Amino acid sequence: MNWVKQTCYLLLFLSLNSVFCVTDSPNESTNDPGNDVVIGTRSGYIRGVRMPTKTGFLVDYFKGVPFAEKPERLRKSQLVHRWPGIYRAQSYPPKCIPVSRPANSSQFSEDCLYLNILKPSGLMPIDKYPVVVFIHGGGFQEGDGNDASCEAFAENFVSKGMVVVTIQYRLAMQGFLSLGCTDPLIPCNIGLWDMVTAFKFINKTIGDFDGDVNNMTLMGHSAGAMAVSLHSISPISSVYFKKYIQLSASSWSLTRYKSQNIETTKKILHDLGCNVSSTKQIVECVNSTSLDSMYSAQIDTNLWPEFGDDLLPDIPDNLVRNTQNQKVLMGVMTLESLYFTYLKSSPAIFPFIQKSTVQEYINSTIAVQYGVNSDSAYEMLSEYYLSSNESENDYPYYMQQRTKIDSNMVFDMPILREARARSQISSNLYLYHFSYFNPAEFDEGFPVQATYHCHEFPYIWGVYKDNYFVFNDDDRKVSEFLINSLTNFIITGDPSSSMLKWKLYDSDVSHTVIQPKPSIEKNLFQSDFKFWNAMAQRFQFDLISGLSVDNNFETTTSKSSVVSVFLLLLSYIIIVLA
Predict the structure, then answer these.
(1) For residue 114, what is the enclosing H or E element?
(2) What keywords tag this UniProt record (predicted)?
(3) Tens digit of pLDDT for each residue in 496-510?
(4) 337-356 pLDDT, tens per residue?
(5) What ranges do the domains of the chain cover?
(6) Superfamily designation of domain 16-318
(7) From 149, 222, 251, 407, active-site residue
(8) Nearest-CA neighbor of 186 among 194, 197, 171, 176?
(9) Tens digits of per-residue pLDDT, 10-21?
(10) Cα separation of 127 and 225, whole Å?
(11) What CATH architecture is 324-577?
């Protein structure tokens, strides 16, 4: 069950990647009334705190702003009512309930639908500021709106003349429990609907924070990027934004989880002692269940967004047809899955990763999903990913190829497929490949060195997901280029700067390569792209999406169910590893 251990990153891309404001600025003192700032909004007066960045730029922070009424279990959130008096928004809100029992439960609450707003200080500008709304990652199972540095958001984004908003949403069974999107008493995608409620609040009030409601960008990393992708194609939520930034993820692989969501939901309900044959009894049962019981029932489970409700009435390839006026910036690392395969592993196991190890992995966890065609699928996969010229004991090569398989399936192919689908509707798409790395971030002698999932964190937010390393001149150049590209796109819809004129995605798969000296190249991962398309055509089944090649929404059944089981189990391991 090796694959169980590594391919569903789709899930935890996940646990390590939530990206939000976590640490207060070292010189912040929310108790000093001299730092207070009060503004009137359409939802009531609100008190924040004014603080300088490291470079002296003044930023107004509004932390823990409620955008919804206290949520009810198995119910969509409702827009917050106008509050009386002056609401104090000077400390971070409680985090939403995760899939696993947290070490410090006092930091978590079911009353968690809050957002954080950062804006340039001062009087209302002549022109409103562009707005970027950020969605955290965590595999839809964990994470919160306070997981990275607000100081970095303030320093690198707000100081460029924009408003930054970070949001929270319900997670795991509280956000994604589903019996198929058909029963109004148990709506699916509650976590996504929470985001929609946040968008409504932002749309209503952002002008009061000097934000331009007509110039808003939705941005996310990992699972947050998947959510961005979903909202961009939704007939309901896409009306709020004109621009989208997806860092290292796509929603094009989520079709595989429909069967898994129903099966997992039934398992959770069964373990809670709920009668799954009665919707009314399910609602009563869940509402009377303790959080401790929920944590226990969710052990080794994962729930995902799914298609079939008003928010996502069809699969991505069909919904994308209505995205003509959108601008999108999206990209990928060289070996996204390296974080999950070997980066955190003991070096003692590396010499034992041989050709036979990868062959067994391909055979028992990937090829088997092709059913009666498993032998033929195994031959194609082995021939493509394993060179006959490499020795049995060349473990760096086999570690790399093992990681490449997972990266291709979970990250690269969904991203490239989304890029291609979008390009057929609109030309306003920019694609990047972040290939630069500093060798100092790897342990000495680590055999596979390449950019991986969450690799951009130090360069954007100053957050290190693996080893800490001191920036050199090349690191500083990459950080400057990446931040300038993101902020330019947020402000103008074009990431170009004096360092490089970005080229739009085209039939040559033109993309920007992020290096100290960035460049434009073509044909990103196109050999892999063609291989997986050939697999789908030969076997009339696409393992990436879990769909038959006719792309029919109703075909997410037998084979995709098998895919879901393997990905489900795999994601458990990823959570543990994270």
Answers:
(1) strand 114-120
(2) Signal
(3) 999 999 999 999 999
(4) 999 999 999 999 999 999 99
(5) 16-318, 324-577
(6) Alpha/Beta hydrolase fold, catalytic domain (3.40.50.1820)
(7) 222
(8) 176
(9) 444 344 444 444
(10) 29
(11) 3-Layer(aba) Sandwich (3.40)
